[in-house]
Amino acid sequence: MVGTFFIGFVFIQWFHSLPVFLKSNWNLEEDAIGILIGASCWIIVVIEMPLIHSIEKAGKIRSYILYGIFLIGSSYLLFLLTGSFWLALIAIIIWTVGEIIFMPLNSATPINMSEKSNRGEYMSYFWMTWSAVNIVAPIVGLSFMDFFGYDAFWFFLFGLSMISLGINWVLNKRLN
After folding, report:
1. What is the mean pLDDT of the chain?
2. Is 66 in contact with 165 (CB distance < 8 Å)?
3. 97 and 90 Cβ atoms separated by less than 8 Å
């Protein structure tokens, strides 16, 4: 749950803090930001199901969760560079591939870890974690950005994703 909370915190910034940065710091118009978010949706529609099916078929779910976490976290580091629409598009492609890999596989983790008798309990804790992320992440993320600045925020998000990666790596070792 802690690992999911940390990467969830990082994940959710794409919808709350990043648009503020793209508009105020990189001077992208709202329609350009909408195009970026729409591009993410199209990538998900086109590749998510076939990719997840092939990962499940290969039996490498836990390993790919780690890749997804790394991609989500590292996508924010591109915002340390000089801004452009095309760099933001590259970042959103990296983030989206990470999301495609991470989200469905991570959602299946409580089911895969639980016994049939306590599956509902595991899932309720999992979704309570995501509820906490949705409450805490926008407020803390935007406040952090405002207080420490954008560059510190991108490093902070990358750091949180690496902590989540470490927690999930340990879990991966225990489950294998």
Report:
1. 92
2. yes
3. no
The tokens for 124 are 């309720």
Sign of torsion over alpha carbons 62, 68, 69, 74: positive
Q: What is the pTM of this model?
A: 0.91
Q: How many residues does the chain have?
A: 176
The predicted structure's pLDDT at residue 20: 94
Range of the domain at 29: 2-175
Residue of 176 and 106 predicted with greater confidence: 106
Q: Which of 7-11, 105-109, 123-127 has the highest mean pLDDT?
A: 7-11
Q: Domain with 113 in it: what CATH number?
A: 1.20.1250.20
Give me 114's structure tokens. Answer: 């639980």
Tokens of 31: 């329609």
SS3 content of the chain, % helix, strand, coil (to 5): 90, 0, 10
Number of domain units in the chain: 1
Q: By C-alpha distance, which of 155, 18, 19, 43 is closest to 101?
A: 43
b/e code 147-171 from CB counts within 10 Å (16+ = b): eeebeebbebbbebbbbbbebbbeb
Residue 142 has pLDDT above 80, yes or no: yes
CB neighbour class for 22 (10 Å; exposed up to 12, middle 13-18, buried from 19): buried
